[in-house]
């Protein structure tokens, strides 16, 4: 029976062969224990540190003799026993009434104890003593041993003693009692016979229950007694320590050699798993002292470590079947307790399951640590619990669920951090095993960044995010505010047999052959821990959190797709009301789509909840700041830090180590900051530093350092997002820094203007549309910093000192303005028409749906183009206010005038009536703002004669009536003050006069020979030049063409303006012809004047 319970004892099972049992027991005891330490060598009373057992308990005098030799044993010499003298002073453990309650016992009335034996366990007796007590006498050593051992192991050899002093049922040991009787010894338990007592009691324990259910409570009682000792009591301490040693040894025997106790091996019983899963404080859980004792004996017994290791592997396997909805916490707590003992962790790290070749999805199930990292609210069965019925959840409920999700996950990640820190600190070998495990995760999850991700081929999002978070925490110790340890990150990591495989990763600025050649040159030595963790964390962000962010964006698209399909199916329902079979099919299809939609929405809300956790993102941003500083140091080949200057452009000779870095080294930084700017900007207030602006400006100015055009454009996006108003910061998180810091003042404007030109041709198939988005963001950055006069002065200086650069910039600005204004304004007549058509009640349902779809498409395009148009016109107004002369250079003035005239005609001429639509603000179309800005550009440039002549020469769009109509609208709608309107009218008069002069010149030159006309533009050439293709065009024509397309317009071969050759002979012929035409015109004018004067004289004479 269970001596820990009060139940009648069952029949004792047959014992195994006694000789076999004796051999096994002696062999095992030789490893697990030795004779008890003498009283003089015992530690001080009350200590809880276990002693490592010495050689064993296998002496014949200490072993239970076989039953068939009982008579011989009875005649043998008495067994050696521990002699315990009464303590000098009475203690709670040194006195008892148990000794006088048994026949034949002796007592000393002068040294009787003052406390009952029930106090030994620290518990008050719950039942009266079974026998009538006599006044307590001083307890002998034998009496103390008998009382204490009976209380600990709940056994007795006295048939007349059914309970102990606390009323607990004692199990009678008939075999040992018979032996003692045969030896004429007192019926008391002693240390010398304790092994036999434990063996008999354990053998009698019910075989349908684990034996540890008996032995573990015995262990805890003996531990409590040791801790409760007070004062110097070396004899008692020695006795209890021997009892503890034997108890632990038999606990191990029960699990590893159940045959000793007449038991068959039973995997459900012979394991520590259920006891590890219980809390340490509970009676059924392993206490810390058990762990301490186990660790102390590891060197002496090679079965203890495998016992614990197998138990933890089994717990890991059990956890792999659970989710966050289940009772997973005991498994995590078990490993938390386990992780407090480095030797056990070292043994666990050597188990084959700690890291074995697995596919990406199976890492999180079949490795030891995998199931612990797998627990996440992103598990499919968990998301639908946090977000049940997501289609009907309002924003408040979603946020509440996300907060609960974050708290649960945060607590779990704290546990994971504790566990991994323990593994890292356990030993160098174990640390390397953990780093290998993390690296293996990264190496088999490259497909997580594929365009199309198959969940069956990669690890889950929840698992990867947990890995990312824990690696972030490993970086915290070396991420100080001064970046003092960033220099310890070794750039030679990937050339020192790295754990990470970056062979198939795109490099920052090198092709595959270059990177392979570079990394083939190996370096000696090993990378330090900081370097290892740095690169592992960088990869974890790429394959973990950043991949989850990309998935969240894709889920938005999927949700819209499913919602559209459900709406389309519901629209078909009225048509099927008379067809039940098809209606049922429709209901099933709607149900399937709804289930998928709700699962997708729940997953999206869960990923948002995980990624929007502020502490996690703050830690991530801190790491990204370190990556930023490290990249700038590597690229600039300096010891850069935010408090040190950085000179641009970067060295023309790029460091090979930088060129061959994986592209995600920079991509992760940019994407992480973009995500935070968009979703949780409040945390960036304390996380953003000058190094982020330095990163963006540096690689925009020295854009040749980065190969990927999309990555470079992301730097502009990052700067743009930094200008968004946030809380009290009207210019955003980065606006004030970009406006006022010296580094930004020196390099920002040129860097963004340079990239404005560069993004014209990115090489991507979407480059035509991408450039408008990029330039829109550049406009936001320039407008943000324009309040600082430094930038205006820089613009003026750039237009003078770098004329070619500035002309290209202005030309592209004109191209954009021309295109987006034309595209945007041309959509409104179509929108107007479609809106009118939808008002027709006779329109069929099919035609209405088609019209509605066309309207949505036109509205979307109009909105995008008008946003770009507003920003482009605003930027032109800004620049022409500062440097009007630069916009009237010969290469661009004619195109500028044509663009302005055309759009002015659209806004104020007869076509303006077609621009009327419902809710124009919806499309960012506000003529009351757009028209005055166009007028401002005219006025800003009106002082330059070449601009006036260019407007007058615009035969396509310029009309004096349009200028007059514009003045009328400005005055009647109060869009400008009277002073500005008068300036407009003066300018209109100048242009009209110039038009008259040009019309006369056109009459003079309208019969020019074909060889004098430009073959592309059809105008009379003034400066003919010969192209490399031998064609002759005017210099202004080819100059304008090369600004947008640096190729020969005839052969499409690359060329620059310096490749043209002036055709001086042709130019001279043109000038001679023009001179002849002018002379003939003057002569004709003189003759005409004379005839008129003669006619006048004749008339006068007649009068």
From TrEMBL:
GO biological process, one term: ubiquitin-dependent protein catabolic process
Localisation: Cytoplasm; Nucleus
Keywords on record: Coiled coil, Cytoplasm, Isomerase, Nucleus, Rotamase, Transferase, Ubl conjugation pathway
Comp. bias intervals (Basic and acidic residues): 61-80
Biological pathway: Protein modification; protein ubiquitination
Biased composition (Low complexity): 33-56, 94-107
Record region (Disordered): 1-142
Stretches assigned to the U-box domain: 1007-1080
Gene3D superfamilies named in the record: Zinc/RING finger domain, C3HC4 (zinc finger)
Broad class of where this protein is predominantly found: cytoplasm
TM region(s), chain numbering: none
MF-aspect GO terms: peptidyl-prolyl cis-trans isomerase activity; ubiquitin-ubiquitin ligase activity
Pfam families documented for this protein: U-box, Ufd2P_core
Catalytic reactions of this protein: S-ubiquitinyl-[E2 ubiquitin-conjugating enzyme]-L-cysteine + [acceptor protein]-L-lysine = [E2 ubiquitin-conjugating enzyme]-L-cysteine + N(6)-ubiquitinyl-[acceptor protein]-L-lysine
Family: Belongs to the ubiquitin conjugation factor E4 family.
Protein name: U-box domain-containing protein
Species, as recorded: Parathielavia hyrcaniae
Lineage: Eukaryota, Fungi, Dikarya, Ascomycota, Pezizomycotina
């Amino acid at each position: 029976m269970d001596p820990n319970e009060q139940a009648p004892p069952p029949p004792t099972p047959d014992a195994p062969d006694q000789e076999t049992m004796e051999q096994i027991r002696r062999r095992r005891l030789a490893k697990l224990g030795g004779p008890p330490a003498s009283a003089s060598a015992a530690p001080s009373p009350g200590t809880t540190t276990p002693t490592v057992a010495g050689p064993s308990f296998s002496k014949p005098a200490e072993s239970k003799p076989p039953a068939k030799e009982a008579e011989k044993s009875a005649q043998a010499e008495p067994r050696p026993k521990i002699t315990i003298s009464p303590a000098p002073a009475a203690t709670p453990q040194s006195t008892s009434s148990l000794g006088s309650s048994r026949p034949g016992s002796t007592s000393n009335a002068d040294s009787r104890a003052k406390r009952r034996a029930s106090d030994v366990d620290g518990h008050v007796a719950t039942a009266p003593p079974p026998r009538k007590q006599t006044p307590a006498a001083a307890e002998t050593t034998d009496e103390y041993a008998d009382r204490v051992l009976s209380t600990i192991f709940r056994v007795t050899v006295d048939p007349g003693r059914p309970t102990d002093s606390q009323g607990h049922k004692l199990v009678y040991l008939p075999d040992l009692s018979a032996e003692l009787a045969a030896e004429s010894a007192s019926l008391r338990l002693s240390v010398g016979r304790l092994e036999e007592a434990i063996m008999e009691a354990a053998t009698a324990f019910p075989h349908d229950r684990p034996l540890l259910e008996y032995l573990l409570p015995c262990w805890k009682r003996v531990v409590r007694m040791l801790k409760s000792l007070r004062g110097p009591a070396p004899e008692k301490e020695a006795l209890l320590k021997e009892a503890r040693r034997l108890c632990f040894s038999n606990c191990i025997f029960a699990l590893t050699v159940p045959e000793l106790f007449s038991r068959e091996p039973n995997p459900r019983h012979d394991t520590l798993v259920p006891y590890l899963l219980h809390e340490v404080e509970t009676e059924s859980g392993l206490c810390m002292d058990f762990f301490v004792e186990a660790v102390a004996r590891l060197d002496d017994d090679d079965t203890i470590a495998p016992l614990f290791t197998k138990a933890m592997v089994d717990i890991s396997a059990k956890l792999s079947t659970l989710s966050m909805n289940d009772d997973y916490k005991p498994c995590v707590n078990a490993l938390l307790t386990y992780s407090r003992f480095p030797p056990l962790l070292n043994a666990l790290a050597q188990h084959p399951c700690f890291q074995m070749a697995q596919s990406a999805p199976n890492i999180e199930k079949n490795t030891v640590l995998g199931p612990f990292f797998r627990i996440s609210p992103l598990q499919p069965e968990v998301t639908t619990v946090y977000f049940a019925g997501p289609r009907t959840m309002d924003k408040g409920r979603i946020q509440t669920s996300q907060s609960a999700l974050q708290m649960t996950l945060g607590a779990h990640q704290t546990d994971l951090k504790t566990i991994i820190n323990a593994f890292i600190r356990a030993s160098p070998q174990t640390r390397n095993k953990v780093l290998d495990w993390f690296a293996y995760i990264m190496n088999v999850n490259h497909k997580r960044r594929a365009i199309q991700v198959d969940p069956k081929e990669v690890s889950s999002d929840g698992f990867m995010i947990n890995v990312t978070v824990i690696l972030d925490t490993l970086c915290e110790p070396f991420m100080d505010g001064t970046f003092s340890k960033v220099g310890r990150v070794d750039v030679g990591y990937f050339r020192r047999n790295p754990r990470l495989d970056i062979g198939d990763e795109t490099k920052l600025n090198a092709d595959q052959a270059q990177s392979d050649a570079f990394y083939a040159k190996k370096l000696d030595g090993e990378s330090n821990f900081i370097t290892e963790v740095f690169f592992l964390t960088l990869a974890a962000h790429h394959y973990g959190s950043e991949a989850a962010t990309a998935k969240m964006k894709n889920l938005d698209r999927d949700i819209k797709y499913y919602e559209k399909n459900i709406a389309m199916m519901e629209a078909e329902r009225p048509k099927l009301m008379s067809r039940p079979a098809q209606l049922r099919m429709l209901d099933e299809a709607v149900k399937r789509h709804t289930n998928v939609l709700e699962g997708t929405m729940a997953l999206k809300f869960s990923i948002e909840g995980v990624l929007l956790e502020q502490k996690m993102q703050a830690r991530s941003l801190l790491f990204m700041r370190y990556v930023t500083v490290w990249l700038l140091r590597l690229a600039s080949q300096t010891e850069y830090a935010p408090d040190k200057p950085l000179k641009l452009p970067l060295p023309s000779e790029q460091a090979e180590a930088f060129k061959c870095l994986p592209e995600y080294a920079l991509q992760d930084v940019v994407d992480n900051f973009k995500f935070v700017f968009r979703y949780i900007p409040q945390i960036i207030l304390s996380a953003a530093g000058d190094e982020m602006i330095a990163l963006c400006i540096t690689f925009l100015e020295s854009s040749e350092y980065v190969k990927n055009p999309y990555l470079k454009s992301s730097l502009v996006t990052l700067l743009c997002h930094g200008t968004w108003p946030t809380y009290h910061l009207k210019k955003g998180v980065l606006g004030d820094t970009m406006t006022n810091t010296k580094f930004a003042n020196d390099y920002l404007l040129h860097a963004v203007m340079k990239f404005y030109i560069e993004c014209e041709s990115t090489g991507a198939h979407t480059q035509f549309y991408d450039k408008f988005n990029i330039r829109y963001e550049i406009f936001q950055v320039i407008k943000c910093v324009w309040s600082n006069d430094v930038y205006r002065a820089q613009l003026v200086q750039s237009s003078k000192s770098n004329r070619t650069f500035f002309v290209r910039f202005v030309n592209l600005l004109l191209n954009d303005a021309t295109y987006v204004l034309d595209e945007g304004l041309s959509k409104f007549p179509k929108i107007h028409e479609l809106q009118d058509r939808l008002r027709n009640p006779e329109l069929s349902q099919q035609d209405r749906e088609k019209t509605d779809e066309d309207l949505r498409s036109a509205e979307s395009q109009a909105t995008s183009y008008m946003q770009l148009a507003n920003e482009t016109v605003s930027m032109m107004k800004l620049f022409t206010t500062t440097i009007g002369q630069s916009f009237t250079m010969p290469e661009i003035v004619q195109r500028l005038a044509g663009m302005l005239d055309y759009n002015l005609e659209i806004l104020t001429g007869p076509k303006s009536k077609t621009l009327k639509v419902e809710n124009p603000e919806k499309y960012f179309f506000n003529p009351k703002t757009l028209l005055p800005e166009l007028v401002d550009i005219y006025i800003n440039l009106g002082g330059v004669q070449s601009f006036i002549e260019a407007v007058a020469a615009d035969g396509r769009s310029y009309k004096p009536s349009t200028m007059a109509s514009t003045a009328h609208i400005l005055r009647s709608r109060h869009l400008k003050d009277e002073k500005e309107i008068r300036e407009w009218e003066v300018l209109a008069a100048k242009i009209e006069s110039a038009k008259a002069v040009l019309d006369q010149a056109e009459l003079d030159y309208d019969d020019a020979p074909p060889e004098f006309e430009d073959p592309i533009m059809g105008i009379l050439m003034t400066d003919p030049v010969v192209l490399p293709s031998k064609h002759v065009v005017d210099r202004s024509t080819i100059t304008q063409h090369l600004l947008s397309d640096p190729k020969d317009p005839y052969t499409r071969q690359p060329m620059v303006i310096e490749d043209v050759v002036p055709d001086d002979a042709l130019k001279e012929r043109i000038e001679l012809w023009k001179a002849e035409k002018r002379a003939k015109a003057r002569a004709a004018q003189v003759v005409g004047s004379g005839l008129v004067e003669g006619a006048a004289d004749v008339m006068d004479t007649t009068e």
